[in-house]
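Reopening this one. Same input as before:
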Amino acid sequence: MPEIGYGNFRKKWLRKATVYSFKNCSLILPVADALVKQEYAYDPKINPKQGLLNLIPDLKTPIQVIPNGFDTIFGGI
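Same output, byte for byte:
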């Protein structure tokens, strides 16, 4: 969110390096769907279009969401 000075898109060269990295890697593994594409509606001063696909609309790199956390039933007792 560049509007509040947070994230890799707040500075020109950091933004360019980030876009280059996402476009040239083989797979993107975010931990939540909201990091891929989200409509942000909490503060009207902040752009509502958030997430990789809104920030880099021509992104073609495959994306697979892998939620972080744990499963309380997996390997159940």
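So the earlier flakiness isn't reproducible anymore. For the record, The CA atoms of residues 70 and 76 lie 12 Å apart.
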